[in-house]
Write a structure and sequence with these properties.
This protein has 79 residues and is mainly α. 62% of the residues lie in helices and 0% in strands.
Length: 79
């Protein structure tokens, strides 16, 4: 996700890609830290694993946005 942000066409796409990637990573980190008893468990679901229709739908939408941003990369620079 951060590589997609670095290669994004404009500033908005960069910020959007960083935000989406950070949201997915934070969600995964919080639930895994709770499962290993590093922090108290919360009501956050593990992306793409936990049973929950709306959470899964939103996570797939975030990945879809990341894929769309990666499809509109900057043109290759020539020397």
């Amino acid at each position: 996700g951060y590589l997609i942000a670095a290669r994004a066409r404009d500033g908005f796409q960069q910020v959007l890609a960083v935000g989406l990637t950070t949201a997915i990573a934070a969600q995964a980190f919080i639930i895994m830290a709770g499962a290993t008893h590093l922090i108290p468990l919360t009501g956050i679901t593990l992306p793409f694993i936990s049973y929950g229709g709306s959470s899964t739908l939103i996570n797939f939408a975030m990945v879809g946005l990341l894929l769309r941003i990666s499809a509109s990369r900057k043109p290759a620079q020539t020397l």
